[in-house]
Amino acid sequence: MKKLLITALFLFTILAVYSCSDNDDNTGEVDKELPTLNIDNLRQSPVKMGAAVNINALKNDADYKNLLIKEVSSITAENVMKMDAMSVSKGVYDFTNADYIVDFAMENNMRVHGHVLIWHQSLPSWVVTFTGDTDGWKAMMKQYIQDVMSHFKGKVTSWDVVNEAILDDGTMRPTIWLEKIGADYIQLAFEYAHEADPSAILFYNEYGQEYSHTKQVAINKLVDELLEKGVPVHGIGLQMHTNIFADETRLKYAVRTAAARNLKVHISELDVAVNPEEDETLKFTDELAKQQQTIYRYATQAMMEVPAENQFGITFWGITDKYSWLTEKHDWGLPFDENFKSKPAYTGILQGLYK
Fold first, then answer.
1. Which residues are marked as active site?
2. Cis peptide before 116 (omega within 30 of 0)
C-alpha cells in the first residue's frame, strides 16, 4: 500500500507491542521444533495458496514462471486486470495481457481470482473525464463490469468487485464512484457482477482489518448491510500488507470475524515487511527473517482456524523478493528471496498449515 499507510501501521504496531503481554512479543527466537505440514510444495496445501503475478516476469523469466507452477494453485493478476490496463475507451478493451495470465493458469490447473473491477485508483483517463449524469455513470459502470466478466466467464472463478471503499477512520472513501453515483455504487457493482456471471464468487476487498478495530468494524458493518439487502456478496478479502510487528491476537481476530458472516475469507495480498521505515542501511538479518517467519505462521494459522467452508485461501502479493512492490522500499516481504530460494517465511507457512 501507500507509504503513509505503512508508516501509520508501523507506529500503531509499535504501540501495540508495548501494550500487549509478553506472549504477543514477536522479537524472540522462533521455536525451530514447531511441527510443519509435510508437503513437497504449497500446491499440496489443504487451502489454496496463491500469488499475485507480474506479467513481465511471467513472460520473460523462466525461473519465476517455474516457481509459480511448482508452488501456487491460485493466481491473481497484479496489475493487468485493473481498469486502466484493460479498458481503452468506453466499450473498447485490450485483454491481451489479462488473457495471457488466464491462459497460463488454465494450462497449469490454477484457479484465477480477478482483481479488481471497481477501485478509486488505476482509472483510465476516459473514466476520469466522463461527463454523464448519475444514470449515465451507472450505465457506464454496468457496461464495464459486465463486459469484463462476460469475457472471462468460465475462466475466472472469483472477483474483487469493489476495493478499498472505506477510509481508516471508518467513513466512506470520497471516490469518483461515490461522487458520481452515490453510496449505492457498491451495491450496484455487486448486482451488476452477479448478473453477468452468477457462478462467480464475489468479494469486497479491503486493507487494515488486522490493525484497525475502527476500520474492521466499518468493513464488517458495510458487508452486513449489503447482506441484509440481499446483495450477492460472497466473501471478504483481507489484503494484509502487514509487517513483523503485527499482533497475533488482532490478526487472527480480523480473519475470524470476517468468517463469522458465513462468507468466504481470502487473505488476498499478503506480504510481511521487515523494514516499514524504509531504512536504506538495513540488512535482512537472521533475526528479521525469524520475526517474519512468525507473522507468516500467524496469518496461515488464522486461515486454518476458520471453518473449512469459509477458507478461500491465501494469496501472497508476489512470490519472490525479485519482483515485489516492497523491493523499491528496501524490503524483503515475500516467502522466496531474489534468487528464488525459500526463506524462513516459507517454514512459517508450513508451521501454520500444521493441525
1. 164, 269
2. yes
Which letter, b or e, does each residue of 296-307 get, where b requires 16 or more Cβ atoms within 10 Å of its Cβ?
bbbbbbbbbebe
Instruction: Count the Cβ atoms, other than its own, within 10 Å of residue 176.
Output: 14
Alpha-helical runs (H) found in the chain? 3-19, 55-60, 62-71, 83-86, 96-107, 125-128, 134-152, 176-181, 185-196, 213-228, 248-259, 286-304, 344-353
Distances (CA, A) of 264 to 40, 173, 330: 26, 24, 34
What is residue 204's three-state secondary structure? strand
Q: Which CATH number fits domain 43-272: 3.30.70.260, 3.90.850.10, 3.20.20.80, 3.30.479.20?
A: 3.20.20.80
Please report which confidence band the pLDDT of residue 33 belongs to, taking 50, 70 and 90 as the band edges.
confident
Q: What is residue 31's predicted lDDT score, i.e. its pLDDT?
A: 52
Strand partners, 74: 50, 111
pLDDT digits (tens, 9 = 90+) for 131-177: 999 999 999 999 999 999 999 999 999 999 999 999 999 999 999 99
Distance linking the first and last C-alpha atoms of the chain: 32
pLDDT band at residue 32, thresholds of 50, 70 and 90? low
